[in-house]
Specification:
Distance between the termini: 34 Å
CATH class: Alpha Beta
Order of helices and strands: HHEEEHEH
Largest sheet: 4 strands, mixed
Strand order of the largest sheet: 1-2-3-4
CATH superfamily: Gcn5-related N-acetyltransferase (GNAT)
CATH topology: Aminopeptidase
Number of strands: 4
Number of helices: 4
Strand content: 25-35%
CATH architecture: 3-Layer(aba) Sandwich
Number of domains: 1
Helix content: 25-40%
């Protein structure tokens, strides 16, 4: 099993609209409190996702990202499928928040909801 490469995850997230300013320390703490999924090409981490969960009722999918050099190959779809089909989330409510890729997530049964609220 490969570990999360914090430097590479920081690099990936720095190109995102949701976590471009996230520090290595914050990334490390978020990883410690999440179930993480890393995608590697050889020794290079090219993808990342994590699930924040109570292991009983819900899981929040966060930070799904693929290195821009590897996009367009179906790796994001594969990563999402891997995350949502993990047996730890069977019979759990999975949710996520996104400003893009709605059609990708809708393919896996996610629906937009006016009920979700957030602050921050």
């Amino acid at each position: 099993m490969k570990h999360v490469n914090f430097i590479k995850v920081r690099e990936l997230l720095s190109a995102s609209y949701w976590a471009s300013e996230r520090s290595i320390n914050v990334i490390q703490k978020s990883v410690e409190h999440s179930e993480c999924f890393s995608l590697y090409s050889g020794e290079i981490q090219i993808g990342f996702a994590r699930v924040v969960t109570d292991y009983s009722t819900f899981g929040y999918i966060a930070d799904v990202i693929i290195d821009s050099n590897y996009r367009g190959q179906g790796l994001g779809k594969w990563l999402v499928e891997t995350v949502i089909n993990d047996p730890r989330w069977k019979d759990k409510f999975l949710l996520l928040a996104t400003d893009d890729a709605h059609s990708l997530y809708q393919k896996y049964g996610f629906k937009q909801s006016p009920k979700l609220m957030g602050v921050g």
